[in-house]
Amino acid sequence: MSRPPNPFAPREYGALERVSDRVYIWRNIVNSGVVVGERGIAVIDTQVNQALARRLHQHVVKTFAKPVLYAINTHYHWDHTNGNAVFKEAGATLVASRRTARAMVERAPRQKGFLSGRGFELGPDPLLPDVFAEDLASVDLGGVTLELRLGHDAETADPTLVWCPQERIAVAGDTVMTGSFPIFGQPSQREGLEDDGWLAAIAEIRSLGAAAVLPGHGPVAGEAELALLERICRYFLDQVRAHHAAGRSLDETIAVMEDDMPAWIARMPEVWGTPRYAILRVWAGLDDLGEPGWAHRKPSAIPVDPIGAAAARPRAVEVASWREAIAQLLEGGDAAAAVSLAREATLAFPDQPWAWTQQATALI
């Protein structure tokens, strides 16, 4: 029995999918755009680590027999910049905006922790750009040009939109994500789906009249994918704002929205983003999340046991009693109760470093 065709399989050139005569996409956990001119190649976003960057570089040079002249970063996120050193060593000029360069420095520790915690081999920090996009309005590859435009705030506050007018193709980075529920930014950051900026970003891309849009993650986008992304943005902005205006708490909003999630959203696969992330992100633009951090509110496979924690909770208010109770749970192998009790300790003693350390130990 023959197997149905895989819609995510590359159509040409091995790991490269042909989008037009001179534009290709390298599909991976993060996408890279490849634009081929008469003089050479531009690679847009350099992969999540140097091993994948080397594979990408070797493949495009072998396939097209041309050098990579430019490596362009659409935004600061590590999974789009971590191969910069590989392309720099091969002679490419690194290009990103000034705001991307700043964010690469300021937010490197958070990015590195996020990805390394998910098992990615990251290596050294990404190299900063040689040339700023603000000073390089367009890139000439020989017979084909790329226009570099500072985009509207979307997943991050530093997107660079790359437009190829000859091929009518836009490379949008994480402003556009397809194939799964999009990640709308981390609630802990003042960026992402916080206001109507993402809607403006989608409108800007639509105004180009592109034949295709290369997303930061997922299959190549057309008008249907842009319309779906806009619909998702509007749904969460409208719903969360309405619940907040009605005086509901964040917990009430999460409960109501998750219980009544439309089927067209609920059936979307979840890879990086989730509907709860979207709720939290919009709420963070309206109000405080209620307590330090936000990770406690996201879905997690880490078990918790509030009932076991309640049974072990010390009657005394002394720090030593709480520390001993948590330690006993950990020693006894009751991690679920230890996690729950340690979380209570951070609420009971928010200014005590030991409480946060105990919580981290329990989670680990």
- Tell me the distance between the termini: 46 Å
**Helix and strand run:** EEEEHEHHEHHEEEEEHEHHHHHHHH
Q: What is the general shape? A: globular
How helical, in percent, are the residues? 40-55%
Overall residue-averaged pLDDT value: 89
Poorly predicted parts = 1-14
Adjacency order of strands in the biggest sheet = 1-2-3-4-5-6-7
| Biggest pleated-sheet summary | 7 strands, mixed
* Spatial extent as radius of gyration: 23 Å
Number of helices: 14
What is the number of E strands? 12
* Structural class category: alpha/beta
Strand content: 15-25%
Entry summary:
With 364 residues, the chain is of the alpha/beta class.
Question: Could you explain how this protein is built, in words?
Answer:
With 364 residues, the chain is an alpha/beta fold. It contains 14 helices and twelve strands. It has a seven-stranded mixed sheet with strand order 1-2-3-4-5-6-7. A five-stranded mixed sheet has the order 8-9-10-11-12, with helices on one face. Helix 11 packs across helix 13 (335-348), helix 12 (319-331) runs parallel beside helix 14 and helix 13 (335-348) packs antiparallel against helix 14. The protein is globular and about 75 Å long.
